[in-house]
Design a protein that fits this description.
single chain, mainly alpha, 78% helix
């Protein structure tokens, strides 16, 4: 490879990492600003009704709006044909079968008349028009159900993250979030029966110890934030497990149905399969629908109170609040878009290093922007916890690949990238 081509590639990768870090930091800061702005406005009017400290920031409502912005962005790409619709393979498969139904309709009618003339007791069924393997290719609700499973865990994981951020500093909330690999290891063992090398499990001990040390030494520690962060870790860990199961089932369905297509149709089917970025868009749309009733039930009365107040007030200073809310939603979705592009450009170990550095950038940026007081114990604990996540990523990559054949190295690398992406 020429030197200038190699340098251009490295510059492109560094630019992607820089953009990924910038969008992550921008999301966390604007999200925290939005939560604090809303809390100030609600607390100024809380004499009208009793409102808890947690609800005063409207974390579920803000999360719902952020999901809505992401869903709007994804739907815009689909409507403008800038990105293929999700599950296009299922759609093309259904169209192909429909065409075959039409072609065989005449033959089916002939068989139906023949059956009636011979006075068969069984009635004519629609399945008689198709061969058994074509009948199995009809698009079903399985894909939507699988997407909804992922969206369920994604919705509650993201909402718990926002709750944790609303009751604590960005730095400590992300230290708590560093324990997600611990929950992923447990979920993989309980749900998938996946048992890893003992060295991989041992590398999680510094993560747990570092988080406990950081929380114990923080003057801003909040049990609400801690348990919300733990809930976020658990939901995101289950999202990763469910996503892996869904992808495996989807691959099996594609292989089992491949014999029903000729070469051109099979190429079309594989070329239109859903991409990770498209799957995230579909999951975001479902998450938006799931979060609407949650926000209305828990915070609807507070939103109505605020809406009524600002409708009657002469000073309607909501511009900064709305800018923070909508920009945080845009940054959150764009961050994931850039993340999926970055995944395809680097090795899993490089991504592990970058993912660890990203969390350090977020913690440092949160400390600087919000002047968060940090004790020596919290600093040491945070360093041990974040460093433990990095060591865990390397250990899992190393001992995961050592058990595989050389022919499966590419597959293992892609699985490692996917898992690292789910920990972001």
């Amino acid at each position: 490879m020429p030197i200038h081509t190699h340098l251009r590639k490295n510059c492109r990768v560094l630019s992607l990492f820089g953009l990924w870090y910038a969008l992550n930091v921008a999301y966390n800061i604007t999200n925290k600003w939005a939560l604090e702005e809303v809390r100030l406005k609600v607390q100024a009017k809380e004499h009208d009704m009793e409102i808890s400290h947690l609800s005063s920031a409207l974390p579920l409502t803000i999360g719902c709006i952020q999901f809505g912005i992401g869903a709007l962005y994804a739907c815009t790409l689909w409507i403008l044909r800038l990105r293929p619709l999700p599950h296009a393979d299922e759609l093309s498969r259904g169209i192909t079968v429909l065409i075959r139904y039409t072609k065989q309709l005449g033959h089916g009618i002939v068989r139906m008349l023949s059956t009636m003339q011979s006075q068969q007791t069984e009635s004519f069924r629609w399945s008689a028009l198709t061969s058994p393997r074509e009948h199995n290719n009809v698009a079903s609700s399985v894909v939507l159900r699988d997407t909804s499973k992922i969206a369920f865990h994604h919705t509650f994981g993201q909402l718990c993250t926002i709750i944790s951020l609303s009751t604590n500093s960005i730095s400590l909330a992300h230290v708590i979030k560093a324990m997600e690999p611990f929950f992923s290891a447990i979920a993989s063992w309980l749900v998938l029966g996946q048992v890893m090398n003992i060295r991989v499990y041992a590398s999680l001990l510094p993560v747990v110890g570092g988080v406990i040390m950081a929380c114990a030494g923080s003057p801003e520690f909040s049990w609400v934030s801690f348990w919300a962060g733990m809930g976020s870790n658990a939901f995101f860990a289950m999202r990763g497990v469910v996503s892996k199961t869904v992808m495996e089932k989807s691959s099996q369905r594609s292989r089992s149905n491949s014999d029903a297509f000729d070469e051109g149709e099979e190429e079309l089917m594989h070329s239109t399969q859903i991409s990770p970025a498209n799957l995230f868009g579909a999951v975001t749309c479902v998450s938006f629908l799931l979060s609407i009733p949650l926000a209305l039930i828990t915070e609807g009365s507070i939103v109505r109170m605020l809406t009524k107040h600002f409708a009657e007030s002469e000073t309607k200073d909501l511009s900064h609040t709305l800018i923070y809310i909508f920009s945080s939603g845009a940054f959150h979705y764009l961050n994931n878009e850039v993340m999926y592009v970055t995944l395809s450009k680097v090795h899993p170990i490089t991504l592990a290093v970058g993912n660890t550095a990203k969390r350090v950038f977020i913690i440092v940026a949160g400390i600087l922007v919000f002047s968060t007081p940090v004790t020596v114990q919290t600093s040491i604990g945070s360093t041990i916890g974040i460093g433990g996540v990095f060591v865990y990523s390397l250990m899992k990559q190393w001992y995961g690949e050592s058990r595989q054949h050389i022919t499966n190295e590419a597959k293992v690398g892609e699985e490692s990238k996917t898992e690292l992406a789910l920990h972001t």
